[in-house]
Amino acid sequence: MGPAGGDAVRQGLSSPFPVPTLPAPEQVLREVFGYGQFRGPQQEIVAHVVAGGSALVLMPTGGGKSLCYQVPALCRPGTGVVISPLIALMQDQVEALCQAGVRASGLHSGCSAEETAATWRDLETGQLDLLYLSPERLLSPGTLDRLAQAAPIALFAIDEAHCVSQWGHDFRPEYLQLSVLAERFTAVPRLALTATADPRTREEIRVRLQLEQDPLFLASFDRPNIRYVLRDKDDLRLQLLALLAEHRGDAGIVYARSRNRVDRLCSELQAAGYDAVAYHAGLDGAVRRAALERFRRESGVIVVATIAFGMGIDKPDVRFVAHVDLPKSLEAYYQETGRAGRDGLPAVAWMAHGAGDLPQLRRFIDDSNAPPSQKRIEHGKLDALIALTEAPVCRRQVLLSHFGESLPSPCGNCDLCLEPSTAQDVTEAARKALSAVFRCDSRFGATHLTDVLLGADTARIRELGHNRLSVYGIGQELDRSQWRSLFRQLLARNLLRADPERFGALAFGDDDRLKPLLRGEERLELRLPPPRRERRREGVAARGASVALDPADSPLLQHLKAWRLEQARLQGVPPYVVFHDRTLVEVVARRPRCLEELGQISGVGQAKLERYGPGLLESLRAFQAQALGSRQPS
Predict the structure, then answer these.
(1) pTM of the predicted model, to two decimals?
(2) Distance between CA atoms of 422 and 412, rounded to whole angstroms?
(3) Which residues of 277-295 are buried (b: 16+ CB within 10 A; e: fewer)?
């Protein structure tokens, strides 16, 4: 299916007779994918699967999970079968593999009858290295029988394996039936892979996929190139625009909870001059597909979306992910933010949260039709997320701890590390907040209570007579954002609770915790944001793993990106399928003069070297000649 590079590695597999000599993993890694060495546990995983072993693999997004099954599939006889939950993910993977010279195809609802027939024909004649299927397609009548009768199966890879677990954040019932693979294909290795699974979820995956006796390969969940930044909601529109101002021209994702907020934010970003598109389940299917294709194939597009967007997105050059509402769990947050910086270059995970987020999420859980046991799971996952938002120290340490990993020292690349502030005694302020709740009859939320404490002169306060309350105007020691943070933390500690019947109105919480505070028997120390006048500007520049690049080389990088975009458009594929940004950055830094030197750059495999090498070198020489000519005296 691909160019000669793939056939060189898999020579002879089109024959109906098995070929005893197959390439070594290191050869495949270098010649097909253009990488000089494996990362982390990849080499051990690949060797285990090539030898016929099954396993569960936990590896962060962008950590190289796909190579853990793609390389063994090319080193074992037959076709590797990959179970993947989304069409977009399959398309990205298949396009990237074909560019690398690998014979890959997918079977999904987007395929025409002719494409489906061609894929089955290639499979049955041994012409496929990798076949991608959705779990629904795999389990449809006749598919397993045809697989059993076709060319040998090299392995089964079950991607996004957390979907099998009811403890996970993205449970998919059809994944439960994948245990049939262990029963029908007993001699075929099975590799379950995920980027998000806490210890309880891991165990359920192993049980349901019959991997209890097989090893667990656990890579670090840390993504050091991602900067985690959390902000108290103030003026959300201005806060978001300040973030985006630091990322003009970058691709990014903005997540919001509701469709209405998505549409509104998208319009506001477009009005501010950003190339933004909306994505949510309420839009026409053609509109959603067009948004996804623009995001995949163009540079600098910002998608404003609900969580309906993103799982399986393989775009490596997403420079920021912004949440304007709390996600539903820490696992969901980790997966969604993991869509930033997959290429290893600096990226930002930014989130604004407020006192109203928590009551709404609690209400969603309580009002759902889920059984009580599932509701307890969801509340527990939400509590873990709140622990991150209210962390007194390094965010990354809290995040990694949730996944059973310890970070010995603060990361130096989150807001709490970069903007350190110590906890302060807020006992008196907390009493004022509680008094405001009591004096307002437990009928109002944090926004109105903050107005009362600050002595705001609003029509609603005058109409209700709250300007005559004893608590009116007594909270001048804190500003609006600090009061909101205080109310949110009182909610998180169950000193207050939100009444779902009154749209989040705040009432007293746990009496056993409240009484010592109100009597003056206990002090309360919390971390509040700095006063508005002392805050740094909202924009944040990410730092992390990167290839050093002189700022003076930026024009050359943009020149090569334009060349890459033209190559992508000619073939109808996303630019990052041609070369990742990281590869182009290395080209600029090293200035290869010949194909041999270009072939030493990470991400340039044999097929891409043959297909793009001459053109890339010519584009590089043309820019250098033009730059030299512009410096010559006239």
Answers:
(1) 0.72
(2) 16
(3) bbbbeebeeeebeebbbeb
